[in-house]
Amino acid sequence: MRRIGLLGGMSWESTQLYYRFINEAVRDQLGGLHSADLLLRSFDFEQVARLQRADRWEDAANLLGGAARDLVRGGAEVILICTNTMHLVAEDVATQAGAPVIHIADVTAEAVQAAELTRVGLLATAFTMERSFYRERFEQRGLSVLVPEVQARSEVHRVIFEELCQGVVRPESKAVYLGVARDLIERGAQGLILGCTEICLLIGQEDFRVPVFDTTALHARAAVRFALSAPEPAQAY
């Protein structure tokens, strides 16, 4: 079993899901008392969020890259950035770490392709919905990505940072997300991407008839495939 390095705490609410999903997948595949060999570097998320708000992505890349190097020194053979947004700096992190970074967008795009869909809706932070780093990886595979309208994007982003990242789950916010998702489906989305690792705390497949792609679970399973020496991920830097 190869050692997995996790860059977490962004937020810890979803990082604990990574830990559980990875260990459950190892147990399911190997049975008995088996669990994952992993290292976790958990950040003070306010430090990272401050850099995001200030548009200081180079500084954020250096922060995560240094932590990833520490994980590699500790024996990690692959790195997972436990958040969608910070994949904006994934290539820089991989270069600094000298180890592969499994890109969450590639793993998700693979799942969309496997479901034989061509157009999906994306719910995520404003950084992920509005910048090109995420959507481009889908478009390179011939997939179309729809995002909510401006006001809806703002509310989706607000709920993530002001509620979900702080462990707050409100039925009123779930209703908002369901409405935004329905609008994406009416606009032609054949499935929905939960493109922030906390969104699965609020909504999931049980809320929709169209396929829902939980990036947290997909990313965790990809790490286990790597750790158990299955074929390499489709894209690792």
Distance linking N and C termini: 20 Å
- Care to count the β-strands? 7
Mean pLDDT across residues: 95
Radius of gyration: 17 Å
Low-confidence stretches: 233-237
Order of helices and strands: EHEHHEHHEHHEHHEEH
* Relative helix content: 40-55%
What general outline do the C-alpha atoms trace? globular
What is the count of DSSP helices, taking H or I runs of 4+ residues? 10
Strand order of the largest sheet: 5-4-6-7
Largest sheet: 4 strands, parallel
Written overview of the protein:
The protein is α/β, with parallel strands linked by helices and 237 residues long. It contains 10 helices and 7 strands. The radius of gyration is 17 Å and the shape is globular. The protein has helices at residues 12-30, 45-53, 57-73, 90-97, 104-114, 126-130, 132-139, 150-162, 171-186, 215-227, and strands spanning 4-8, 38-42, 78-81, 119-123, 144-146, 191-194, 212-214. The strands form 2 sheets. A 4-stranded parallel sheet has the order 5-4-6-7, sandwiched between helices. The chain has a 3-stranded parallel sheet with strand order 2-1-3, with helices on both faces. Mean pLDDT is 95; it is low at 233-237.
